Model the fold of this input.
Amino acid sequence: MELYMNGVIFFPKKDTDKVLEILDGYELLPDDVDDCLAADDYGSAAIEYRDVCLGDIDDDLTEALQRLKNNNIPIKGALDYYGDYDGRYVIENYECKNLDAQAVVIKDASDDDLIFELEARGYRVTEIAEDDGD
Done:
């Protein structure tokens, strides 16, 4: 199965070596990882995926996230994939959500577009104001 990844995974800069070790153990790194690795002055690091062919990574990514959790290394990000099928892996709280192409379109849609579509289908939509603590 051919799936190509585009996206970014973020983690603490101080944990870079361990993150690379864990992800490499599951073959979840780009071949040119040194060119795809970035860090800032605020303690964050990231790996950018640019058309990286990794195939179906569901199980490996889930296991890698569990190892990162066991090592108390926070990680988050999103990897869009395309190839044999399209979608997005969303990484938050040591979990990986696999969104299909249709779910990605909905997630990326603006509130106005979603409301317009729901109203066009006959639904009444009411906006609930956020509580600002006053």
In short: The beta strands are 3-12, 37-39, 44-53, 76-83, 87-92, 95-100. The longest strand covers residues 3-12. The mean pLDDT is 92. The CA atoms of residues 13 and 40 lie 8 Å apart.
